[in-house]
Amino acid sequence: MRYRVAILVLLAFLGGCAGPDGKKFSVLFPPYSADLDPAAQEVVHAAATFAKAHPLMPLSVGGYASRPDPGNYPTLRQERVGVVQKALVREGVDQFRIEIPGNGIIYPDGVPDLPVDRVDINIGL
């Protein structure tokens, strides 16, 4: 009997962990910059608040950059990801929870309507 009750309690707990769907937060940067302006800081704050409210959801941070200089764009992208990661940690997100997959992605030239100077914070996706 206790075994059945324990299983029911466990299933109820796991069902409650499913929660809402994940979210993506896009932090936009000015061209050639890795500085967080007030609007970008608000996005990081909103992402950190969502992440802390859903501690079991995976969190990843991926950076994107346009191609200002063939030798410079990987550094700028990595710098932006680092700035966002540090800001999330300052907001109270556990640093060991933040995954940074690969080196990020660079969009090929000519992809329309996509802001490429950004970092995406994916929570639960």
Describe the protein:
The chain has 125 residues and is an alpha+beta fold. 41% of the residues lie in helices and 16% in strands. It contains 3 helices and 4 strands. Strand 2 (59-64), helix 3 (73-90) and strand 3 form a beta-alpha-beta unit. The longest helix is centred in the middle third of the chain and has 18 residues, at 73-90. The protein starts with a helix and ends with a strand.
Compact summary:
Helix content is 41%, strand content 16%.
Structural class: alpha+beta
In the sheet with the most strands, the strands line up as 1-4-2-3
Helix and strand sequence: HEHEHEE
Give the integer mean of the pLDDT values: 79
What characteristic shape results from the CA principal axes?
globular
Amino-to-carboxy terminus distance: 38 Å
Find the count of extended strands (DSSP E, 2+ residues): 4
State the share of residues found in helices, binned by percent: 40-55%
Give the low-confidence spans: 8-19
Which value, in Å, is the CA radius of gyration?
A: 18 Å
Count of runs of 4 or more consecutive helical residues: 3
Largest sheet: 4 strands, mixed
Strand content: 15-25%
